[in-house]
Design brief:
Strand order of the largest sheet: 2-1-6-5-4-3
Largest sheet: 6 strands, mixed
Number of strands: 6
CATH class: Alpha Beta
Order of helices and strands: HHEEHEEEEH
Structural class: alpha+beta
Distance between the termini: 51 Å
Mean pLDDT: 93
Strand content: 35-45%
Amino acid sequence: MLSDGDHIRNLLGTYTRLIDAGDFDGVGRLFADATLCTEDGTVVATGATEIARLYAGTTRRHEDGTPLTQHVVANTVLEPITAEAIRATSNYVVFQVTPTLPFQPIAAGSYIDTFVRTESAWRFAERRFTLGRTGDLSQHLATSLHNLEESR
């Protein structure tokens, strides 16, 4: 029998597998009942369609249809909010290797996720994220976003 914490860690692991596979519609479905926010709570996207569109519009897919990344979510600390809600604070690191770039970390930061228990399962309700450190994002960000970042 899996504990509530196991179910929540499984959701975090499912996210990493979907994003690394370039399955942005799957990421959207995973966050279907959730809101993505910056650390201060500014809403970036809400619901399956907006969240899938956000990832598809900002993440470059390579010839195999994936972003050629490996997301690692670690150091997760769970805090009960209520009997039906848990906050998970985690660190993440995104690694990437492409035909033109060696294997390297390209981003690291934190996720502060709120999960709620429904009648059938735990679900994402909110994700707040921070981007603490970045490496070479030239092969990761969608071209238009990368050009915007370079023009700043």
